[in-house]
Amino acid sequence: MTDLGMENVRAEIDELDRHIVELVSRRQHWVQEAGKLKTDRDDVRAPDRVEKVISKVRALAEASGASLDVVERTYRAMIAAFIDLELSVHETYKGPS
Prior knowledge:
Blueprint: H1 6-37, H2 41-45, H3 47-64, H4 68-94
């Protein structure tokens, strides 16, 4: 492996961050749409669905060589933030439940 230098490594990470934020934005759009459709706050929280997503992304991490723990922890944090957003969207469209 060649020595890329820290500047090049940081530039690659910055580029990846740009792509990750774009993907988070796309995911946010669909989370907001889901928040409009769900029937109540429990439906938004959906703990069974959360665990299915975690299981799915751990399998994807394993297949790609990513750290299973890093992927799971990242997704749990992201899902928690999206649940908060989805709850606010849900309340706007459906009212408190």
